[in-house]
Amino acid sequence: xxxxxxxxxxxxxxxxxxxxxxxxxxxxxxxxxxxxxxxxxxxxxxxxxxxxxxxxxxxxxxxxxxxxxxxxxxxxxxxxxxxxxxxxxxxxxxxxxxxxxxxxxxxxxxxxxxxxxxxxxxxxxxxxxxxxxxxxxxxxxxxxxxxxxxxxxxxxxxxxxxxxxxxxxxxxxxxxxxxxxxxxxxxxxxxxxxxxxxxxxxxxxxxxxxxxxxxxxxxxxxxxxxxxxxxxxxxxxxxxxxxxxxxxxxxxxxxxxxxxxxxxxxxxxxxxxxxxxxxxxxxxxxxxxxxxxxxxxxxxxxxxxxxxxxxxxxxxxxxxxxxxxxxxxxxxxxxxxxxxxxxxxxxxxxxxxxxxxxxxxxxxxxxxxxxxxxxxxxxxxxxxxxxxxxxxxxxxxxxxxxxxxxxxxxxxxxxxxxxxxxxxxxxxxxxxxxxxxxxxxxxxxxxxxxxxxxxxxxxxxxxxxxxxxxxxxxxxxxxxxxxxxxxxxxxxxxxxxxxxxxxxxxxxxxxxxxxxxxxxxxxxxxxxxxxxxxxxxxxxxxxxxxxxxxxxxxxxxxxxxxxxxxxxxxxxxxxxxxxxxxxxxxxxxxxxxxxxxxxxxx
Length: 602
Ligand code: ADP
Ligand code: MG
Fold this sequence. Notes:
37% helix; 5-stranded mixed β-sheet; binds magnesium ion; alpha+beta; 9-stranded mixed β-sheet
């Protein structure tokens, strides 16, 4: 008996399905690509249960001839290339001819299609069994439905995560495609709820705004960089609009979203020194390259592509962003007192100051010197913000961050001095310690937030005037889903109608940072964390990290001696003060012994 045999088609398909179809998000991606390749003006996507129960993609593109329907679901059958050389210059998103065959193997697939001016037809494939082509009336274009993904493959179905997690991935796939193709109108409905409704546009900024909110889009900075036949263009965020995760970093080449660590590294390099550790810049970048400079035929499901000259692209990105950012004197950014940079103020002058991309030296010089108004603070126990506001009204000067208790107290046993507006040098019995002021303060605040949440006594400040927040489409669901988490962190968010919510409380320790800013930041973190399948207890922690980072003094903030002493004193009160929540060390020690040895005293 022969021991080697060719595998039956269904086994081949199922193996391919293992590569192509990982989860509902892969189905969304494949069906969207097919729809886009058909040259549509609009595509409507509907999902049920995160896409596990149903993914439906309807387009008004070129359609499939009835005779071709069985071929469309056959493996390695494609209308997109004929000969191997075609692979060298792929202009369509699909080309392997695997997607529909694979999906039909692991789900129930229903295709309805009609070419404009032709007869419509329908075909069903259920777990690899291909039905008959039957006539079907309907609009020109194609509708593809995928029911009960992995319904016939229990082993794989059991690997799917909770519908919420699958939904997070699927909507991410939609967002990426929608970003790559602003020229096509797109909509996304989940469990009957309309999440995105995106009109066709020739403005990329507009599409970004429709997806992530107009407020974000308006503040983006346009960038462009050209080197011979390679070009990159798009939009990046201002350094002060940094976010917690990489969710707002998107790269595209030849109409495809892709991921590339080297290019993202170049983006981060361009912001070096402008962002706090752990924060990420916003970047939407499109690359234009000749067809033979990029190979998209790397992996059917992964978002990787291969570039002929990766280092050239690295330089292109770095140069393009650097010239945009380093043209301004970036050290001046850090000179502006943080209170003046927070978008809390509502008068016009303050708003312009706040929204200046790179406050220049003139602005910094014009800003009042930042001095904590220790003496002026009234004795009665009142919320910190109230004090601060009062003092500020009286003196016309912004005041120090909440949380650095600049109250008179015993000076610590250790002598401490601030250096370069960012380090605190402490004399200790063991030697000399250099402390990163931001990292330490962040850790102190985080520990305080955490222990008060644990004790159920996080001090919450009810806002006299609730702050309005316009949510980007995807964010409304996050607010719904995580209302309890937000509330545990002191943030009460209530519906206000449409995509608008109001924030009615914030943690008192958040100081002057606007409640809307805190909520937006929390949503960023929740989005990244829940896409990673976050556990609810950790989600609260995520929000607290964000709060602590926001509220903490920054590198570059000058401190009074009272504040320096307070920080050093508080340090002893918190556990684990050696690392800030992001895991950076908060201090370095030069031991006496080392010093003595260096100076040959031993
Ligand atoms: P590929 O996209 O790699 O060619 P698929 O299995 O995804 O392979 O699709 C097979 C074929 O079915 C495509 O080549 C195309 O001709 C046809 N097809 C699939 N979806 C659509 C659609 N929405 N509109 C028109 N034709 C489609
Ligand atoms: Mg395809």
